Amino acid sequence: MIRAAVLGHPIAHSLSPRIYNRWFEETEIEGHYEAIDVAPEAFETTVRKLADEGYAGVNVTIPHKERALALADEASSSATAIGAANLLLFRNGKIIAENTDWCGFSEAVEREGGPLSGDTAVVLGAGGAAAGVLYALQNYESVLLSNRTRERADAMAQRFPNVDVVPWEEKLSLGQTASGLLVNTTSLGMNGYPTLGMILGEPGPDMVVDIVYTPMETKLVRAARKGGKPVANGLAMLIWQAVPSFEAYTGLPPKRPAATLADLEMEFA
Ligand code: NAP
Predict the structure, then answer these.
(1) Taking the C-alpha atoms of 244, 248, 251 and 254 in order, what is their torsion angle to the nearest 10 degrees?
(2) CA 263 to CA 269: how far, in whole Å?
(3) 205-234, pLDDT tens digit by residue?
(4) Full-prediction pTM beyond 0.85?
(5) How far is the CA of 129 from the centre of ligand 1 (A)?
(6) Which helix (DSSP H) or strand (DSSP E) does residue 27 occupy?
(7) 216 CA from centroid of ligand 1 (Å)
(8) Cβ-based neighbours of 32, under 8 Å, separated by 6 or more
(9) Residue nearest to atom 14 of ligand 1 (CA)
(10) How many Å apart are CA 46 and CA 152, to the nearest integer?
């Protein structure tokens, strides 16, 4: 029996148990995946307890991703470069940190025909999720980054040589002038937050990605779709980051991840 979980705080509304348990069933692997609410002060002891209990590993979400990297015995080069881990594998008495968020982002973009290299991309937001996105966009000549808190954007630009910072006050104009990929990694547009308020101009960005997945279709995604642009939503990123995690736990890829995404998109439409 393969056991795995996602640790977060809060975590009650996580879709991950549904996704992984469906994949266990479809691949006929005996396994169980659960969501565990873990407060920051209990994170490290919980991880070590689950490792001792024989879990294959855990996925990690807000607010534990940086702490997850820090406590690991070993880390992949991507987790180290991003500065955060969303996957901890328990192998031979060691905790190994991985980051599959950037793979999920890349896969979601590529499946919609979007390029992962080119002249310019625009990224809004410099929080935890932005680092994975910027890591995935390292082959762009130039990435313009805008964040409400300027210092966070400046710190991110120090880590990625192709990134330049644009003041937050100018971010809305990027919807008019930007070409290439435009990515929202802020919480704006998420349920309970104000909307981004971005109007997409002509020609505007070639493709729009919004990593927010509650709601599945943000106003930004809807506007881009209406304008005939290719889009990728946060649900796609969520599914495609889960694929390498599932494979790491079980040794096998899930059978029909695209069908899982299509079903969830239909459910939340
Ligand atoms: P985070 O580290 O808390 O960062 C939040 C970001 O949103 C920061 O850039 C923050 O700017 C900005 N922000 C928040 N409220 C704002 C406001 N009122 N006005 C302007 N900017 C605001 O969170 P995160 O982990 O990066 O996650 C960000 C979003 O991505 C969330 O919706 C999360 O659910 C989603 N996400 C999706 C996936 C996926 O697989 N699809 C994966 C990870 C995250 P400041 O720096 O100024 O605070």
Answers:
(1) -30
(2) 10
(3) 999 999 999 999 999 999 999 999 999 999
(4) yes
(5) 7
(6) helix 16-27
(7) 15
(8) 1, 2, 3, 4, 21, 24
(9) 187
(10) 30
